[in-house]
Hints:
Blueprint: H1 20-25, H2 28-44, H3 48-63, H4 68-95, H5 100-122, H6 128-160, H7 164-180, H8 186-232, H9 239-266, H10 275-278
Amino acid sequence: xxxxxxxxxxxxxxxxxxxxxxxxxxxxxxxxxxxxxxxxxxxxxxxxxxxxxxxxxxxxxxxxxxxxxxxxxxxxxxxxxxxxxxxxxxxxxxxxxxxxxxxxxxxxxxxxxxxxxxxxxxxxxxxxxxxxxxxxxxxxxxxxxxxxxxxxxxxxxxxxxxxxxxxxxxxxxxxxxxxxxxxxxxxxxxxxxxxxxxxxxxxxxxxxxxxxxxxxxxxxxxxxxxxxxxxxxxxxxxxxxxxxxxxxxxxxxxxxxxxxxxxxxxxxxxxxxxxxxxx
Length: 279
C-alpha cells in the first residue's frame, strides 16, 4: 500500500454541541436527589414524595439544560475537558507509533504549541477570546504532524524493502528477453509482462520517495512556522495574522493527503508484484 496520510479524525463525531440535557440529568446532584426521593418514598410509604420529585425533575429537565448560566459555568467547561481528553488520547496513541527521532520532534512541537498559547495569553493587545478558535488549530496541526510522521516512518520501512540492485538486474534480464524473442513467442510475452510489473514497481518506489521528501519537508515547515509564531505572537495585534498562517499549513497537509490517496489508488493493482505474471 502506498503511504497515505491517515486521518483518524474522520471517525470522530462532528457534533460540536455539548449534550446539555445529558449533563443536566447525569450529574451527581440530580441523581442523588432522585435516588433519595425514591428511597424516602419507599421507606415511608409516602408516595407523594416520589410524585413531587418526578414533577420537579420534569421542570428541571424542561428548563435546566437551557440555562445560560449553567451552560457557561459548568457544562461547557465539562464539554471542553471531554474534548481535550479525546484529543490527547488520540494523539498519544499516534505518538507511540513514531520512531524515537520523530517522538522527540513531536514532543518539541507540543512544547512549542504550549509556549505559543501562553504568549498569546500574555499579549495585552489581543483578546484571548478572539484567539480561541485560532489557537485550537494548533492542536489540529500537531495531529497533522503526527500523521505525517507516521506516514514517513511507514514509507521509509517500505522503501528499505526495495532491493534496487536486484530490481535493476531483473529489469535488464527481461528487457534483453523481450528484444531476443521474436514477436508472438510466448516466452517474449511473459518477459514483457514481467517487465511491465517491474516498471510499475520502480515507478511506485519513485513516487514513494517523492511523497516521503514532500512530507518530511512539510514537517520541517511546520516546525519552523511554530517557532516563527512564537516570535511573532508577542507583538501580534491582529488575530487574522495567526489564522492565515495556520490555515496555510493545514492546506499544505491536506494537499499531501490528497496526493497520497491518488497515488494509492493508481498503484493499487501492483500490491502483489507477481499478479501480472500469473495472469
